[in-house]
């Protein structure tokens, strides 16, 4: 059962003038093809694997997690008007996300992501094609100005073109709307490094944290250093995920480490997106940062143990049921 939280974490205030309005999430929505090997890889030939196809994409996953937790959420993304695109829109809408602002283009096929997983469920490598997201131009962002201005918070993934992200930040800064960055991967994160301090919250993994902060991250101490570097640049909440080592977090006035919860990994896809969405949800409900990140760990753990990119039975009650003390 959810605990009633009356106080707000210091320095974590969000835009309560816009409370009740939907969070807006901007970025990629993909078709995910996830291949879990049944044995060791044999190069230059076909390998036996369990293959699962589902709807994914960083921004879309964050939006669906928020909607399943019960927060009104609007997704701004790009799909082609093909079978894949229709499946992405339909499943996202069924999860409770407002899909009215999804853009249909036919100059490129709908975005797709392919993950190759070890027999133990660890990601060996992933490849994606999110070229369609380039259609989220600065002009398109400007056309959605009112949507961003009225949001209590905006989440953007680093698939969004840099110039479009800067336009969105300008709009949100003028309206006093905090913006969260999900870095997605090393190369997209590197593009965002010059202005990372403009974001309210960032939630990279170790390699993405290196791209954003310039600090090598191989252990907990280095991760805390990277998180503190990000807050020194202006980020209000910096979270660095460390797989089996859990995560670290920093704000301008505090930092900490949260251990991982032991779980048999079924599929790691979407775990970071679940964490980001849950921390956003918690902060919007005035839950202190130390509790918010613990809830995020719970969400990531539940997702790791599920074959779905987004846990279908996600609720605040099951997050609290396994909260890390």
> Span between N and C termini?
15 Å
Mass-distribution shape? globular
The parts where pLDDT drops under 50 for at least 5 residues are 1-11
Mean pLDDT: 90
Category from helices, strands and their pairing: alpha/beta
Q: Which CATH architecture of the domain at 16-28 and 58-108 and 133-182 and 261-321 would you pick?
A: 3-Layer(aba) Sandwich
Fold-level CATH name of the domain at 16-28 and 58-108 and 133-182 and 261-321? UDP-N-acetylmuramoyl-L-alanine:D-glutamate ligase
Beta-strand proportion: 15-25%
The overall strand count is 14
Describe it.
This protein is of the alpha/beta class and 325 residues long. It has a domain at 16-28 and 58-108 and 133-182 and 261-321: 3-Layer(aba) Sandwich (UDP-N-acetylmuramoyl-L-alanine:D-glutamate ligase). It has eleven helices and 14 strands. It has helices at 58-68, 83-94, 138-143, 145-149, 162-174, 186-192, 206-213, 220-232, 271-284, 289-304, 316-321; strands spanning 23-26, 30-37, 49-56, 73-76, 78-80, 103-105, 112-117, 123-129, 154-157, 179-182, 201-202, 237-241, 247-250, 255-258. Strand 5 (78-80), helix 2 and strand 6 (103-105) form a beta-alpha-beta unit. The longest helix has 16 residues, at 289-304.
Entry summary:
This protein has 325 residues and is α/β, with parallel strands linked by helices. The chain is built from eleven helices and 14 strands.
Write the topology of this structure.
Blueprint: E1 23-26, E2 30-37, E3 49-56, H1 58-68, E4 73-76, E5 78-80, H2 83-94, E6 103-105, E7 112-117, E8 123-129, H3 138-143, H4 145-149, E9 154-157, H5 162-174, E10 179-182, H6 186-192, E11 201-202, H7 206-213, H8 220-232, E12 237-241, E13 247-250, E14 255-258, H9 271-284, H10 289-304, H11 316-321
Parallel strand pairs: 1-4, 1-9, 2-7, 5-6, 9-10, 10-11, 11-12
Antiparallel strand pairs: 2-3, 7-8, 12-13, 13-14
């Amino acid at each position: 059962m959810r605990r009633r939280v009356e106080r707000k974490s210091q320095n974590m205030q969000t835009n309560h003038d816009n409370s009740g309005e939907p969070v807006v999430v901007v970025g990629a929505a993909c078709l995910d093809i996830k291949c879990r090997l049944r044995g060791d890889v044999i190069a230059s030939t076909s390998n036996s694997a369990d293959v699962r196809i589902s709807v994914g994409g960083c921004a879309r996953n964050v939006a669906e997690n928020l909607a399943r937790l019960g927060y009104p959420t609007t997704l701004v993304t790009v799909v082609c008007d093909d079978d894949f695109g229709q499946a992405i829109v339909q499943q996202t809408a069924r999860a409770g996300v407002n899909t009215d602002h999804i853009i249909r283009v036919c100059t490129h096929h709908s975005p797709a992501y392919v993950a190759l997983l070890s027999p133990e469920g660890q990601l060996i490598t992933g490849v994606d094609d999110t070229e369609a997201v380039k259609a989220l131009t600065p002009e398109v962002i400007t056309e959605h100005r009112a949507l961003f201005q009225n949001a209590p918070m905006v989440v953007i993934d680093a698939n969004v073109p840099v110039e479009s992200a800067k336009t969105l930040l300008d709009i949100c800064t003028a309206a006093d709307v905090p913006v969260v960055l999900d870095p997605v991967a090393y190369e997209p994160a590197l593009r965002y490094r010059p202005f990372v301090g403009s974001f309210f919250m960032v939630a990279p993994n170790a390699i993405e944290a290196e791209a954003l902060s310039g600090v090598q991250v191989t252990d907990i101490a280095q991760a805390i250093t990277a998180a503190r570097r990000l807050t020194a640049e202006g980020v209000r909440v910096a979270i660095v995920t460390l797989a089996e080592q859990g995560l670290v977090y920093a704000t301008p006035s505090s930092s900490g480490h949260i251990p991982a919860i032991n779980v048999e990994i079924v599929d790691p896809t979407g775990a970071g997106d679940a964490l980001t969405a849950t921390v956003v949800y918690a902060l919007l409900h005035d839950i202190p940062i130390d509790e918010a990140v613990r809830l995020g760990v719970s969400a990531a753990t539940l997702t790791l143990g599920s074959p779905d990119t987004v846990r279908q039975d996600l609720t605040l009650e099951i997050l609290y049921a396994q909260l890390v003390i």
